[in-house]
Amino acid sequence: MFEYTVYTCIKKILLQTNLHLSREISDLKAQLLEMKKMMKISFDLQMDIQRSIRQEVAAGIAAASGG
């Protein structure tokens, strides 16, 4: 009887721990996905800024050279 009770308690603890870990992993996956989205937005913004700077520099050089 005692062994069954201990076994049942351990099983219950393991199930609760697994459930908790599953939730934590799901949360981490969601956070990772959000970070990936933010990185993509940041990268796209950086590319747009670089393109804009190149255009401004090209326009400045063209204006300075009389073109």
Automatic annotation (TrEMBL):
It comes from the Eukaryota. This is Uncharacterized protein. It comes from Dreissena polymorpha (Zebra mussel). The lineage of its organism: Eukaryota, Metazoa, Spiralia, Lophotrochozoa, Mollusca.
